[in-house]
Amino acid sequence: DHFYTMEKDGLTSIVTTNDIKVQSFLQEELKEILPNSSFYCEENDIKDLSKDYIWIIDPIDGTTNYARGISSCAISVALEYKGEIILGVVYNPYQNALFKAYKGNGAFLNDKRIHVSNKKFEDAILYTAFSAYDKKESSRVFDFIKTIFPLANDIRRSGSAAFEISSVGAGRGDLFFELKLNPWDYAAASLIIKEAGGYISSLNEDVSLVGPSMVIASNTKENLEKLKSLIKKYY
């Protein structure tokens, strides 16, 4: 499909016309399913937290990848009820990967139940990024990565946080860290990884559903605490 690309917050943050189209489509359809709900979405500064039910949407997580024809991107939709995520869907159409979770009912990838791995820290793969939207913080991020790289198995950076966190839920990776994300980046995936037996939090508290947050995720509690201890040396 043809689309136009526009800068949103400089060259590192862009939006395409298809981001807007997907978001508008989802708003229309989801409003019909749940009329008494509001929306918190990435595009067009939509943040209505007035209802008990709130849809948290990233129409294309990994827009730069999408605009370049790279398949690591996803549609992310979460349903929040009174401050708690109860439904999460992360869909990568290029890889035919549909992650989904409903609170208390487990997590699934294409209708097959998923579970985090049991890998120990030294055998773990870490998904991360390098603070692309705030590059003055990048040096500390790179210092952290230099510290953790010898302690783990390897590092990945795919460009879609929602897809990466969900992949940890499926045992495709084991750790995740990003310095600053918005709720639409991780809301749906946060339920997917928890329902898959994993963990997700900020450094000293739960991830925020009302504003930006540091996001740390892991397959096991032990690995989560070790990852946090390493991050605390820099933050």
Describe the overall structure.
Helix 4 runs parallel beside helix 5. A hairpin with a 4-residue loop joins strand 8 and strand 9. The strands form 3 sheets. An 8-stranded mixed sheet has the order 4-3-5-6-7-8-9-10. It has a 5-stranded mixed sheet with strand order 12-11-13-15-14, sandwiched between helices. The chain has 6 helices and 15 strands. 29% of the residues lie in helices and 31% in strands.
Q: Which spans of ≥5 residues are poorly predicted at pLDDT below 50?
A: none
User: Averaged pLDDT, please?
Assistant: 93
Strand content: 25-35%
Structural class: alpha+beta
Q: Tell me the distance between the termini.
A: 42 Å
Along the chain, the helix and strand elements come as: EEHEEEHEEEEEEHEHEHEEH
| Number of DSSP E strands | 15
Helix content: 25-40%
- Characterize the largest beta sheet: strand count, sense, and whether it forms a barrel: 8 strands, mixed
Question: In which order are the strands of the major sheet placed?
Answer: 4-3-5-6-7-8-9-10
Task: Give the overall shape, derived from the CA principal axes.
Answer: globular
Round the Cα radius of gyration to an integer and report it. Answer: 17 Å
User: How many helix segments?
Assistant: 6
Can you lay out the helices and strands and say which pair or pack?
Blueprint: E1 5-7, E2 14-16, H1 17-33, E3 37-41, E4 46-47, E5 53-61, H2 63-68, E6 74-81, E7 84-92, E8 97-102, E9 107-109, E10 112-113, E11 125-128, H3 138-148, E12 154-156, H4 161-169, E13 175-181, H5 183-195, E14 199-201, E15 213-218, H6 221-231
Parallel strand pairs: 3-5, 11-12, 11-13
Antiparallel strand pairs: 1-2, 3-4, 5-6, 6-7, 7-8, 8-9, 9-10, 13-15, 14-15
Helix pairs in contact: 4-5
